[in-house]
Write a structure and sequence with these properties.
Chain lengths: 137, 275
């Protein structure tokens, strides 16, 4: 066959373009980490009062370890009956997903869900714990 | 160039001290390290919490005069705990309810000339928080367990919905969520009429029951039914001889449900004695 080499090269190029499409089409898109919003009324109010935004622990700790922390909170509250969390800064918090966490983070869709969807994890906290009305400023 | 034993030991000692304690010593000296200002995170009890050794109730149904009085106790509980009303007795979820004398004390020998008022009065029932709870013995996941203060607690996180506890409980104090409590009936009415946003709901497939208002005790409030009962339901520590509940039990004749089963229920029904 004449031009066999060129045909093969053409097929290979076509293959790469066609099957590689999803990859280069999504470059810089699907993988962009979600930007979480920290602009709920409660958080802004806290910032106004204390001059900074901070959670019960540092942001790095919370984003990496909040699931373990929540599990410990759950066991402490439900099984040991301890309801106060004293954090590493020595401040006390009432341990409650519904009444403490979601009081500040009253934007589940822009906060919890965004990251959970991105990572394709599906925690079932909210099949029982009631999500407060979404508040966005 | 070789080193002798003395030099070797000195070097080893110095490097060990630096390696193990170096970082914290350095940060302590410079005052920049986190180790200095940090407290170890820990859990404590709310100082407002009411504590006891074995919570119990003395219930005087003679003080519940009208149907409204009963309903007040029931809705006080069911409203704050988001207990669904499925509108069907087969699926009913109940934490506190009322029933006839015969159903409440089925094993008490029938007496045809007993006090008519007592015999015809409905009794108010909820979990007996037994000292020897049968439900706790059968639970395969320890979802239901006995707390230090005597509460037979239900951890909805751990319940797998096997319903062993429902079979074990001689008092019918446990209900299964056969349907999604957050759902709606055919007419579009939600099963939980008005959600209490401070308390969770449950999900389909878990067992629930009276938790003796553990969330209220933890912040220093009395159980909701006792608060709404206008003195008919007296709450207190059964192991404290000076508690109000013990005084009521001491001064009156009380009976318990199915005491012969040996579960040691903590609900005492006042049926006679001083008013």
């Amino acid at each position: 066959m004449k031009n066999a080499g060129k045909v093969v090269i053409g097929v290979v190029i076509g293959f790469v373009i066609f099957f590689g499409f999803p990859f280069y089409y999504n470059i810089g898109k699907a993988n962009v980490a979600p930007k979480l919003k920290y602009d709920t009324p409660a958080i802004l109010q806290y910032e106004k009062q204390y001059g900074k935004k901070e959670c019960v622990e540092s942001k790095a700790f919370m984003s990496a370890e909040h699931m373990q922390l929540l599990n410990q909170w759950r066991d402490a509250v439900v099984r040991s009956g301890d309801r106060i969390y004293v954090n590493s800064r020595g401040e006390s918090f009432h341990m409650s997903l519904q009444n403490t966490c979601l009081n500040c983070h009253s934007n589940k869709k822009e906060f919890c869900d965004k990251c959970h969807n991105y990572l394709a994890v599906n925690p079932y906290c909210f099949s029982c714990h009631i999500v407060p009305k979404e508040k966005q400023s | 160039m070789s080193i002798n034993r003395r030099q070797f030991l000195r070097l080893a000692g110095v490097s060990t001290v630096l390696g193990v304690g170096g970082a914290s010593v350095l940060s302590a000296l410079t005052g920049k390290g986190e180790a200095v200002s940090q407290t170890t995170p820990h859990f404590t009890t709310d100082p407002r919490a009411i504590t006891g050794k074995r919570w119990g109730f003395a219930i005087d149904v003679r003080k519940l005069k009208t149907d409204e009085d009963y309903q007040k106790c029931i809705s006080a509980c069911h409203d704050i705990h988001n207990v669904p009303d499925f509108g069907n007795p087969k699926d009913a979820v109940k934490w506190i309810w009322k029933d006839t004398y015969e159903h409440t004390f089925p094993t008490v020998t029938e007496d045809e000339i007993m006090n008519k008022e007592l015999k015809e009065k409905p009794f108010i029932l909820f979990c007996n928080h037994c000292a020897q709870p049968a439900c706790v013995r059968v639970c395969p996941t320890k979802a239901t367990y006995k707390r230090k203060d005597g509460i037979v607690m239900q951890d909805m996180h751990r319940c797998i919905g096997c319903r062993f506890c429902m079979a074990a409980c001689p008092f019918g104090a446990r209900s299964f969520n056969y349907r999604d409590p957050r759902g709606k009936d055919a007419n579009g009415r939600p099963f939980i009429r008005k959600e209490n946003k401070e308390f969770p709901t449950r999900m389909i497939g878990v067992v629930e029951k009276c938790t003796l208002c553990y969330e209220r005790l933890a912040v220093g409030l009395l159980p909701a039914c006792a608060e709404a009962s206008n003195g008919a339901i007296v709450f207190g520590d059964l192991e404290d001889p000076n508690s109000e509940v013990r005084k009521v039990i001491d001064a009156n004749y009380t009976i318990r449900r199915k005491p012969e089963l040996g579960t040691q229920p903590s609900l005492y029904y006042v049926i006679g004695g001083r008013e």
